[in-house]
């Protein structure tokens, strides 16, 4: 009888000790599901914003600019680096407007500004999504809509966007130190644009090809697509 009572007390104490851990696990799973729902909404929102940049009328672009400005503030509050993005937009704007002026003259300058604005509004939601959402949550959401391989490719492409900006900036500074004629003053001459392609864009393309090879090798080492059921770290 004493042995039975001691055994019952031990089981009671064991269940009592496991109760906080089970509660913490349930809370973690609940938070994970909430983050997954928010990530799904963020993906849908970014897709709609990017499509709207080309579909909305010109007089409605101001509303999109205001929404994207709010996205910039939100990403900044999430500790995202805005400087590389702003530099990329400035460079893209100078190149596009420069080509318009070179080909059509100043009479179509306003049209060039509208084109630049639409391109920025297409790119910014994807950058915001990559800066504010984790890769495993994006992968989980996309796996519900796409095959696993495609979900992995799309997720990796989204998450590599901030890396591309950082890598392009590093290559640009290194080439400037080597004496390449790609400074903002030198690029005012269209003859030097070929040097920008040769010194920055080609090395960046080679670096991205090398990165994709490493990502594929890493996925193979982790036996990616060897199982019909896929898990997502930290919670499935």
TrEMBL record:
The keyword Glycoprotein does not apply. InterPro entries: ABC/ECF_trnsptr_transmembrane. The keyword Transport does not apply. It is a multi-pass membrane protein. Its main location: membrane. Keywords: Membrane, Transmembrane, Transmembrane helix. Belongs to the CbiQ family. This is Cobalt transport protein. It comes from Shewanella saliphila. The lineage of its organism: Bacteria, Pseudomonadati, Pseudomonadota, Gammaproteobacteria, Alteromonadales.
């Amino acid at each position: 009888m004493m042995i039975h009572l001691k055994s019952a007390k031990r089981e009671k104490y064991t269940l009592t000790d496991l109760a906080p851990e089970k509660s913490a696990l349930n809370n973690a799973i609940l938070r994970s599901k909430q983050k997954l729902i928010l990530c799904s909404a963020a993906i849908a929102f970014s897709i709609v914003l990017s499509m709207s940049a080309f579909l909305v009328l010109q007089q409605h672009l101001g509303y999109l600019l205001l929404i994207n400005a709010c996205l910039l503030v939100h990403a900044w509050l999430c500790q995202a680096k805005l400087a590389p993005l702003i530099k990329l937009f400035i460079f893209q704007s100078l190149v596009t407007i420069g080509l318009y002026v070179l080909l059509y003259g100043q009479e179509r300058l306003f049209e060039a500004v509208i084109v630049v604005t639409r391109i920025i509004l297409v790119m910014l939601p994807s950058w915001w999504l990559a800066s504010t959402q984790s890769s495993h949550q994006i992968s989980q959401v996309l796996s519900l809509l796409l095959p696993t391989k495609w979900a992995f490719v799309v997720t990796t492409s989204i998450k590599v966007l901030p890396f591309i900006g950082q890598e392009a900036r590093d290559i640009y500074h290194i080439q400037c130190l080597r004496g390449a004629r790609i400074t903002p003053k030198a690029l005012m001459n269209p003859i030097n644009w070929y040097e920008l392609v040769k010194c920055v864009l080609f090395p960046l393309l080679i670096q991205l090809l090398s990165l994709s090879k490493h990502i594929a090798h890493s996925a193979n080492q982790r036996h990616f697509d060897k199982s019909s059921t896929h898990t997502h770290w930290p919670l499935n």
